[in-house]
Amino acid sequence: MAKQVVTRTYTASIGNQQQVSDDLDALGFAASKLWNVGRWTISRVWDEIGYIPEHDELTAYLKSHERYDDLHSQSSQRVLQELAEAFNGWYGKRRNGDTNANPLGYRKHRDEHPRSTVTFKNKGFKLDTKYNRLRLSKGSNLKEYWSDFILCEYQTRPDVDLSTVESVQQVRTVWTGDEWELHFVCKVEIEVSEAPSEQTVGVDLGITNFAVLAYEDGHAELYPLNCLKQDDYYFSKRIARCDDSDSEQATRLNRRKSARRTHYFHTLSKHIVQRCVDEGVGTIVVGDLSGIREDEENGESKDWGKHGNLDLHSWAFDRFTDLLEYKAEMEGITIKQVFERDTSKSCSCCGRKRDANRVERGLYVCDECGMVANADVNGAENIRQKVSPILVTDGVDETHSVSSAHQNAKHSGDGDRSNGWLAQPSTFLFDKETGAFAPREQVTS
Q1: What DSSP designation does 234 have?
Q2: Contact between residue 182 and residue 173 where contact means Cβ atoms under 8 Å apart
Q3: Burial of 96 (0-12, 13-18, 19+ CB in 10 A)
Q4: DSSP 334
Q5: Residue 148: what pLDDT?
Q6: How far apart are the C-alpha atoms of 23 and 151, rounded to whole Å?
Q7: Can you tell me whether residue 332 is helix, strand or coil?
Q8: Residues 150, 20: contact at Cβ < 8 Å?
Q9: Which residues of the chain have pLDDT under 70?
Q10: pLDDT value of residue 110
């Protein structure tokens, strides 16, 4: 077993809730007010010059505003950072054709401000792990003559001991709807398994098949997105029937939808990592999709069509990759992200690149070597080969972690592999009854 330092978030209850709830309420309300001031400022700048200020620009502009001093300076900076990031996210959706994307609203429920999450960085809190106490700094406007901090008594799970972690990076106060709780973001040293082997698997993330895996030994797996699309359709219809999109019923439905998506991503990432452990995979190669919304040549927004643009912006690939990396590191498996350029156009067998080879959404036919493949699996195999490439020198294969079956198929001249692993991958579906993934033939309707 090897040791590795990773980031973990631990949730804790507050033992003296009644004594500190008023002060925490005041901070939560203050964060909402600062958000609204920042929201108004961004809107004014946008209307005048068509520009969204970055969070550091927004912070510099609002430092002299009285609402900025309601929180500790680092906490105020975090509120404005989240606002700027969210506003840029909305603008990205609009720029990519999502006409249904609405700009960020103000944090207000009728005439009241909601309790927003407040983040405290290293200078904003002091932790006493001996007596399970946490001191949180107030902003200068909220400091009283007898106290300039909030003293919380916290309780973590029995298996969590904050005195043993490398460091506590941040503390968040989070309103659950009934009470406040604490989230500790920590650096933790953990034991991880040694890498199973040097075997690799390529992972192609997509809109129809959320994840497609191409293993080195020659087989592949598909993980369709049907389950989440059904949820999106179901909850969208339920929310549309609500009298008000901000109503309690609509909020409850949105929370249920979000919780189901979160469960799906956690379950899928855990399943894929376990499959890699079972197959002796030491490296997962994932396509880097950070530039998926922009054209590679001119930087303009790509047009994926009306439905494609909407799907693209509900596509949580960054979130999923983070979960996959988090779970893989526990098993000693390395995650490598590679540039995806041309992986959907190129033949994974001979390297021929041609747009027309992708004859339809799920089929790739190479006009050079005659290979017939599932298009997404072909892309996943190209991604895998970016880390474990196939090299040919003077007619002799010089390979790095490439299966003999793949080598033989590549050079045998038998291009039609419609009955092979590229064309007929295994399909795993999410079973809502068991909350797990299973091969298609094992899932009953």
Answers
A1: H
A2: yes
A3: buried
A4: E
A5: 86
A6: 10
A7: coil
A8: yes
A9: 1-2, 96-101, 109-111, 145-146, 192-197, 245-246, 289-316, 355-361, 390-424, 441-445
A10: 65
Tokens (6 digits) for 352: 């021929």
DSSP 350: T
Query: Helices 55-62 & 17-49, crossing angle to 10 degrees?
Result: 100
DSSP string computed for 293-330? TB-TTT-PBP---HHHHHHHHT--HHHHHHHHHHHHHH
The torsion angle over the Cα atoms of residues 308, 313, 315 and 319, rounded to 10 degrees, is: 160
CA distance 80 to 213: 39
Chain-centroid distance of CA 385 in Å reads: 24
- Which residue, chain included where needed, has tokens 């001031």? 37
Secondary structure element (H or E) that encloses residue 374, with its range = strand 372-374
What is the model's pTM?
0.59
What are the beta bridge partners of residue 133? 128, 153
Return d(Cα 236, Cα 253) in angstroms, integer.
9
pLDDT at 390: 57
**Strand, helix or coil at 58?**
helix
- Tell me what percent of the chain is helix, strand and coil, each rounded to the nearest 5: 40, 25, 35
Domains and CATH numbers, the chain: 2-192 (no CATH), 199-442 (3.30.420.140)
What is the 8-class DSSP label of residue 280?
Answer: T
The token pair at 163 is 């005195």
Q: What is the secondary structure of 194-224 as a DSSP string?
A: PP--SEEEEEEE-SSEEEEEEETTS-EEEEE
